[in-house]
Structures are given as structure tokens and as C-alpha cells.
Amino acid sequence: MKRRQALKTMGAAALVGPHLFANKKRSQTMKKAINTDKAPKAIGPYSQAIATNGMIFASGQIPIDPATGELNTGSIEDQTRLVLNNLKAVLDEGGCNFDDVVKCTVFLEDMNDFSQMNTVYAEFFNPPYPARAAVQVARLPKDVKVEIEAIAVK
Predict the structure, then answer these.
(1) 42 and 3 share one domain
(2) CA dist., res. 6 & res. 45, Å (int)
(3) pLDDT tens digit string along 4-42?
(4) What string of DSSP letters covers 59-104?
(5) How far apart are the first and last CA of the chain?
(6) Which of 35, 58, 69, 117 fits as disulfide partner to 49, beta carbons 3.0 to 4.6 Å?
(7) Structurally, how many domains does the chain consist of?
């Protein structure tokens, strides 16, 4: 009876274990950075992707050629194609591909480019398509026209 009363008093922490609430080292070891030279290096304090619990969280990719480091300032179609090729390289490094993607977020400089971006996007994904959001933003890194991030399940 005393044990039951103690569990009620302690609530969820007693059921799942106090170590889940107090041990930061445990949670830090459950994630792994994914980096590849086949995609542009991060331009800030972030990873190209993080793998955790069978999922890959890929950071937004912009149209930088990983071989040269040069920014692609071409059409929205050219930029979208390079962005998705960069994203593919990151997913490949994490052991995934576009069929494993469950969610994408597309950031556009101009929502008038949506149709052209969408045409190229459809070249990379197969049904069932991942869930997706597409938003127009005030500005993107290096003033590019498109950035795309993804979540994949291994």
C-alpha cells in the first residue's frame, strides 16, 4: 500500500523513471550529426542533419554548388533542382532517400514562383508524397529564391 501511495504522489516521474528528467547526457547521446561533402557546408552553428530515434531532421538547403561553393543565382527551377540535389546528398548520408521523407517545408522568396518550384519538386518525390508546407518569407540566406528542409523516417 505504501508503494502505491508513493507512486500516486510522485506521478509520471515514478512511472517512467526520474533519470529521464534529470540526465542531460543521455538525451545528448541519442542524437548524431550527419554531414557530407556532397552538400554545402553549414553556414552557421548547425548540422546539415540530425539523426535521432530512427528519424532524420535535415536542415534547410539552399542552392549552393557543393563542389565549387558557388551560389546558383539562376531561375527558380535551377535553384530548386540544386536545393533538392543537396537535400538528397544529406539524406543519402543519413541512410535515407526521398521515399523516406514524411514532411518538407519549402521557403520561397516569392510565392509567384510556387508553380515552377512545384514542377521541379514533383521530379524528386513519388506518391505517397510527403506532407508539406510552402511559405513566402521576407528574406532567405544569401538572398536565394528557395530553401527546403525535410524530415525522414529510416
Answers:
(1) no
(2) 44
(3) 554 455 554 444 554 444 555 555 559 999 999 999 998
(4) EEE-SB-TTT-PBP-S-HHHHHHHHHHHHHHHHHHTT--GGGEEEE
(5) 44
(6) 58
(7) 2
